[in-house]
Amino acid sequence: MTNAAYVAIACGIIVGLGALGASIGIALMGGKFLEGSARQPELMGKLQTSMFVLAGLIDAAFLIGVGVAMLFAFGNPFAA
Fold this sequence. Notes:
Layout: H1 3-39, H2 44-74
């Protein structure tokens, strides 16, 4: 296999595992938000704000992984 094939496989793994991790993280966070707001409805506004901040951080980590994958795909630093 050529170097380009390995880079393509690595990019797929980076984006795929990043998407999987972000999806699982947001799903768990959403479930805990619903549990917390059902348990204490008066704190729903504060919990919702915290949930949106954490969702943004989780998505930012995934998008950084996509950026790294794009770096490898288009500006391959390993190309000879």
